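Budget justification, computational time. The allocation requested in the original proposal was used primarily to generate structure tokens for proteins on the priority list. As evidence of use, we reproduce two of the resulting records. The first is shown immediately below.
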Amino acid sequence: MSKSTESETLSKHIRDSMRDDILNGRWAPGDKLQLTALSKHYQTSSTVIREALTRLVGDRLVLLKPNRGFFVPTLSLAELKDINELRTRSEEFGIGLAIERGDLSWESELIAAHHTLERTPYRDNTDDAQLTEAWNRAHQAFHAKLLEACGVPVLIDLCSTLSDLSQLYGRWAANATRFTGRDVAKEHREILAAALERDAKTASRLIREHYQITLDAILKSGIDDGAAQHGAAPANA
């Protein structure tokens, strides 16, 4: 393996690890990401860390403030509403194309992705207010597979970015949705069934309802923007 390839592999590994840590709440919204501390944590050079952070800025998972450094983005309910609507509309369009263009291989892979999701533990045994990292990954993989057959890379990339941004609010959702009585597994089974039946209209409706339930739970939980920016749990948690 050439030195350039090794460097690219290391850079991607660090970027992926940092992305996972941000999405899983290692740092609170608004926290500064110190190069020295990150270099020590990930056991790599500050150059690799800076490159990874710069890439994550492009993904909107890190905020670069001129002359101040890199930060975890702060959160706002207004932004959450906009992200949810854009994500919903994008995935509604994408699932329609995927259902139209998807072949038998796509159906098989979609069933496999759903099987993994169903068999992955949902809540963390050590903190039942939080979703497990494995479930979050399986959840994103299932929704990504739903859209994969649409054949529009730009749309797939957009939906992936919006999925990541939505997951930044995961701690709100995890706490807030404990009390809704929703059956998330049933929601996914219904989305899968509609996709396999090639019913784009129903699949689109179910995806919108799926995301809207989570959004409504967060909005009704009593959390405000000030609390969110400090990573606080909802008042009724």
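The second record produced under the same allocation is shown here.
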Amino acid sequence: MHHPDFLSDATNSEVAEPQAHPERFENPGLPPHKERLSDLDDKAAKRVELQVVGLLVLSMVAAIAGIVGYFMFNPSEGASAVRYSTLSIGAGLGLAMLLIGVAAVHWAKALMNDAEMVEERHPIPSDDKTKEEAAQLLSEVTADARIERRPLLKGALASALLLAPLPFAVPLIGNLSSDWNISKFRHTAWANRPAGAQGRRLARDPEDEPIRAADVTIGSVFHVIPHELGKLPGEEHFMEEKAKAVVLLVRIDPSELIEEEDRKDWSYDGIVAYSKICTHVGCPVALYEQQTRHLLCPCHQSTFDMRDGAKVVFGPAKRALPQLPITVDDEGYLIATSDFHEPVGPSYWERLK
């Protein structure tokens, strides 16, 4: 079925000529500036100033509270005290910085000049006249901040900025004091042994049962602590000593072990013992993959090869896990012949390697 009229209209219609684009659009300019209440009313501006000062004062209070909390909880009282001390210093620092940021935003939105300014682009480098104009503009911007006319606001800002970093700096200063005994990281309870003993016995954690070499089968895994930990001199802080001395013990087919010449006597018939403290950030390394003989850190997936000196095969850790030299005593129990030969755990400034 045909529609002659429609075809005729389509045939006779003319295609409109495209309109040429203008070379330049007219600048519409800036919209009219709207004055804020603080621009029109000095009392409103004063209220905003006091609000900003209040936020800065709260920032100072938070910083001081963080420092007080840090010293209020004595780390020697146990893990919970360490946790609360760290929480206090972190919360104080974070809140102090947050309040300074909120105060700065409120100040900028309500007190600083918010009139939009337009400056035409100019060639680079600028000539002397332009540089003078830029310097003048910076002076005007400084004046627009209105800080010179508000000494209370200026003093509160300076005080808050000085106090806010203290929750971060105080622990660093404390770590450099005479109370910070860095040698604690170099030695563990494995260095202690009962009088007349051949070495410190390895015991199951947490049962504290000594381990016989004959009970350790190939592929088995034992979580180990020093036997009778906390009962020898120098081991009064049980949890601290345990945190440094925890060990993972496994037995591997001796033919699979790759041992350096000076460490061949550090294992016993395929039984090897390594620190459980990851050398990355100190997480407990306790996931043993029996098929690959790999030890995995659950925090950041650092992986250590138990067949080859617990060297790093994957992940962010950079150093192998420290190995505990072991053997058996006259009764067949596994014992540590010495302490670790290097500090356990993550790196710190004073360690040599």
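A brief technical remark on that second record: The mean pLDDT is 83.
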